[in-house]
Design a protein that fits this description.
The chain is an alpha/beta fold and 259 residues long. Helix content is 27%, strand content 27%. Strands 1, 4, 7, 8, 10, 13, 14 and 15 form an eight-stranded mixed β-sheet that branches. A two-stranded antiparallel ribbon has the order 2-3. Strands 5-6 form a two-stranded antiparallel ribbon.
Length: 259
């Protein structure tokens, strides 16, 4: 199965971490881009064929993978002939297709633009280039295959940043101050989509201006074609500098939770 990653965003909420000259997926966690960590989590579970939907500063993402051997090991250069020999490092046995899907293209349009790189039939994984998790991909795929619908999203219930109010009309029945667990799921990415989902909901007129999270997934839900795989393990996005600080701290611990 192919793994499609949406990594065309600008990451404006990350402030100085991206500035104007660094795409969000290349922001580093423990010395490696978050994009590398995401791909590594798929590769550990056996999925190594990637399609990257690049956009903002896509040339930098291309350069990163083009020169990946330079970042992961030693090298020897024959100054007379110009011959280069790489000495270890860069042991990832991955295939990476990088598609420039446009700086301003919305997520449904990005998927439509890379459809030619997907298998004509069958499912593929899809996720965002800014979220890490320890989701069991085999269980996720098995869940998708067994229910027979076109789309599966992974629902996560992250610890609340704010207090939650349970209401009875206008009366506060219970106040939970930053609950550690909640039943209010959000879409954590880590999706499985059938190729037919793309044809039906993404390859449509004006797709470049359509967000996957709006019309395509909303219509799939109304059509009964959207299912949720509940994940209670680790999940963390990198929307803000505060999120980055948390991931950097977790990466320096004795056990990295997304591994």
């Amino acid at each position: 199965m192919k793994v499609v990653l949406l990594c065309g965003g600008k990451g404006t909420r990350l402030g100085e971490l991206t500035g104007r000259r660094l795409p969000k997926p290349l922001v580093e966690i423990a010395g490696r881009p978050i994009l590398w960590h995401i791909m590594k989590s798929y590769a550990r579970q056996g999925y190594t064929d990637f399609v990257l939907c690049a956009g903002h500063l896509s040339e930098m993402i291309k350069q990163y993978f083009l020169h990946s051997k330079l970042y992961g090991g030693d090298m020897r250069v024959n100054m007379r002939t110009g011959e280069v020999e790489f000495l270890g490092g860069g042991d990832e046995d991955w295939t990476v297709t990088i598609a420039d899907t446009g700086a301003e293209t919305q997520t449904a349009g990005r998927i439509a633009r890379v459809a030619r790189y997907l298998d004509p039939e069958g499912p593929f994984f899809l996720t965002y280039g800014d979220g890490l998790s320890d989701v069991d991909l085999a269980e996720l795929f098995s869940f998708h295959k067994n229910h027979g619908r076109l789309a599966t999203i992974t629902g996560v219930a992250p610890p609340g940043r704010f207090g939650e109010l349970d209401l009875d009309g206008s009366r506060v029945a219970e106040l939970k101050e930053k609950p550690e667990e909640t039943d209010r799921y959000i879409n954590g990415g880590f999706m499985v989509l059938d190729r037919e989902f793309v044809r039906r909901y993404c390859e449509v007129p004006d797709a470049d201006n359509i967000m996957l999270e709006r019309a395509p997934l909303e219509r799939a839900a109304l059509d009964g074609e959207l299912m949720m795989f509940a994940h209670r393990g680790f999940w963390q996005c990198m929307d803000t500098a505060r999120d980055w600080e948390l991931l950097e701290k977790l990466a320096s611990g004795p056990k990295v939770p997304w591994q």
